[in-house]
Structures are given as C-alpha cells and as structure tokens.
Amino acid sequence: MFKIAVASGKGGTGKTFVSTNLYQTFIEYGINAVLTDCDAEEPNAASFFKTELIESKQVTQKVPQIDSSKCLFCGKCQDWCAYNAILIIKERGLSRVMEELCHGCGACSVACENGAITEKEMLLGEVINFSDNSGCKIVEGRLKVGVYTPVPVLKRAINSTYADLAIFDSPPGTSCPFIHTVNASDYVILVTEPTPFGLNDLKLSVEILQKMGRPFSVIINRAGLGNRVVHDYLKRENIELIMEIPFDKEIASAYSKGKLAVSGRPLLAAKFSSLARKLTDKIGGIAL
Amino acid sequence: MKTAITSTGNTLDSPMDRRFGRCSYFVIFDELTGSVEFIPNENAESVEGAGVASARLVASKGVEKIISGEFGNKVKSIFDSLGMHLIMIKEEKSVGEIIGLIKNKK
Description:
With 288 residues, chain A is α/β, with parallel strands linked by helices. Chain A contains nine helices and eleven strands.
C-alpha cells in the first residue's frame, strides 16, 4: 500500500479539498484507494461522498485507578509517571489520577508494589469505516469531545484498512497529530496559500519533513490571491511545486455545499488528473 | 497561615505572574512569622501537566491560600478537594504589594 499524506502547517489551506478531489480522481481511474480522514478533531472528508456505514470501532486507552484502601502514598507511581498524570500528596491523604494527562504507558502499575493500581479502559473516540459508491473505502477517525490528544485515534484510523493506495487527510498544524500522520506516509503533499501566513507555516512543515527525510512537494491553493512570496521561497529552496489551484469563487461555493469540485469542471479535473499522474510516476507499481 | 503567590521574579518588586502552573517563582508568605520564601518553579518548562506538578509543589509547602492571575480546570479541582482557597487578581500588582494587602487583611 502506498500512502500519501495531504498536510499543511496552516489550517484552512485546502487539505480536505485536495484529498477528496484527488481520491475521486484516483477511483475514477479504477485505482483501489482509501481516503482516511486523520483530522480526528473535526473529520469531514466523508461528507463529500455518498457513503454507507460499514462499521464503527471504539478506540480506548488504559488508564490507572488507585484503590485508596491499599495505597500507602509512597509516591512511586507519581515519580514514574512522565506526564504528571498522577498526584499523590501524603500529608493530605490525596491520591488522584488526572486521566486527561495519561498516555496509557502502564508504568504506574509496574511501579506500585502494594497492588493499589488497576487499569480500566477509557473511551477516546472511534474509527468509522464507510464504503462509497465505487466500493472504495473512506475511513474517519473521530475523537470524543474533551479528549486531550487525537493521536491514538488517528493512528488506529491509519491502520484500520488496506487498499493499493491510501490518501491521508492530515490534521492541521505541525505538532504530534501532523507528525504521526506524515510518519505513517511514504509521500507528503503540502497544501499552502500564497500569503505570508501560508509561507510561515509552510516553512515550519518543510523543516520537519526534511528532518524526517520524507519526500514531498507543494500545492499552492487559491493561486492569484496574495503575493509571490511562496513561489519565490519554493524556487529558492528548490522545492517542487506539483500543482497550482487558481482562486475561484465558484469552487469555494461548491465546496461549501459539500460538492466535489472535479465533478463537472473539466479544467480542474484535468489538473487533478495531471497531479495523479505525477504522483503515480513517483510511486511506481500503480498505473493509471 | 501560609499563602503562595505566583511571581515573575525573585524580588518583592517582581510583578505577580498571571500563570499558575508555569509561573517563574512561587513566593510562600507566612502570616504568623512574616517570613517570605522564593521557590523557583522547575515545572515551568514541563511539556505536560505543569499545573498538576505545581499544585503538588505548593501543597507540599503547607499552603492554604494561593494567589495568581488564573487557574486551569485540573488545578481547580485538585485544590478544591484539598480545601485550599484560590484567589485571582486581575490587575497588575507586585508581590510586595500583595503581601502588604494580606498583612492589612484586605
């Protein structure tokens, strides 16, 4: 399975727009593809397709619970916890698990010599599998409201299904959710916009991908707006500009209604076909 | 009674730190003896859970009142179960000024 992540430092640059239209382009070529929405905090990629629910799986994490009748307040569990998720105050007789800080590593259970710690399952979210009209799959990670990090849910979403080609609609930003998504990918497309904000966040993503050694190229969305700072930067840094999507109010309007922009727009569809070809040239093993 | 005040520096002229978990110093003022102790907050750079770690630090000092600009939800619930009082000060004040207010019982 070849995995492409569509990412961006900045939110709202068009990751979902590119992912959904690229996925549609590939399945129209008859490629067995899966679109995975890794933006578990607000997944929406599935809403662009007519889908049928296949299954929904809960994602849980183990968190400790402390039996206060067995706890001697020795504080060993607290010392072993790297995330400040356990608070023991002997003088006040307080032992408290801060579940939202827990990473589920289990160190506290090993640390406790008095059998005061047991583990329970805490619900983090769900991974939902849909099938679209073509029989291809759309997977969605959906975080439970209030959960601290989307990483366990998006990791499960990434590994939940198999296809010849996977497109990951990455979460915005350059923090852990982004890192985990691009780390699971073979190739990354960074979507940006031609503005100083777009450039600033593009640079942050580029630095990380270069450190991780992931091959990538850049799409400039809403080209024609803003200025040339992103173009100049790409040229200077010798980074491939794989596609430009011109700013078009009609596209924005169709997108806001949950419609795929490549449907009924031959010019745009041709651009996405060309993108799909360039990508398959890089991949090898998949022919359009 | 002991009070903890979050501080941006280690002098009485330092402005109060508006953050609890990631403040630079904790100032422990003892009303009985009038002593003032400055404790550097080593949790200020914690990746996660700075508030919880700072709550542990402050509670271990036998403090009953805490003065800062803002407290997060996790910290609030901890101090609540410990029966400690949280006081939020919105305007800019130095640590010395706040200690003066405590002395004058304001």
